Amino acid sequence: MVEKAVAFAAKCHEGTCRKGTHIPYIVHPLETAVIVSLMTADQELICAALLHDVIEDAGVTKSQLEEEFGSRVAHLVMEETEDKTKSWKERKSATLKHLEHASEEIKILVLADKLSNLRSTARDYLLIGDEIWKRFNEKDKAQHAWYYLNIADLLIELENFGVYQEYKTLCEQVFGKSHK
């Protein structure tokens, strides 16, 4: 099932790159899946990690995912999918609110997704500094700090995972130690 999800995601993201880079977009879902696999052997959750952006970015429907990968994978992907008709702040606020009562499996999926994004941001931040914020729809570093640091607070139950500790360290490197 994981191999099928890799092929499906690769086809959906074919020809696209990460914002402001020449890195093929598929690298992100692959890395997200690897991070999830460090926390759990749950194959459906790993598939959801591979597919987490196909509804948002590739026009795939929930029913297509259900047909190809089953209802649980489709449900997990839907839990991680943002409503792109809303503003950046509205989407991120909704994610934070959702995480207040989300299941551990959703929190694992979110941590993997955000860690993958933060690794990319931290790497490029070392190279180009605050110029990095120009590549995003939201250009204000303080807004990104608000979002990523609140994610860390809401995922505290995952603190025993090394990837959570990596997330916290990268937040500090990019945004500084305190946000309160």
Give the structure's gist in a few sentences.
The chain has helices spanning 2-12, 27-39, 43-51, 54-58, 62-69, 71-80, 88-99, 104-128, 141-154, 162-175.
Radius of gyration: 16 Å
Q: Let me know the number of strands.
A: 0
The structural domain count equals 1
Distance between the termini: 43 Å
CATH topology: Hypothetical protein af1432
Q: Summarize the biggest pleated sheet.
A: none
Number of helices: 10
Name of the level-1 CATH class: Mainly Alpha
Question: Beta fraction of the residues?
Answer: under 5%
Structural class: mainly alpha
The helix fraction, in percent, is 55-70%
**Overall geometric form:** globular
The ordered H/E elements are HHHHHHHHHH
Overall average residue pLDDT = 94
- Fourth-level CATH superfamily: Hypothetical protein af1432
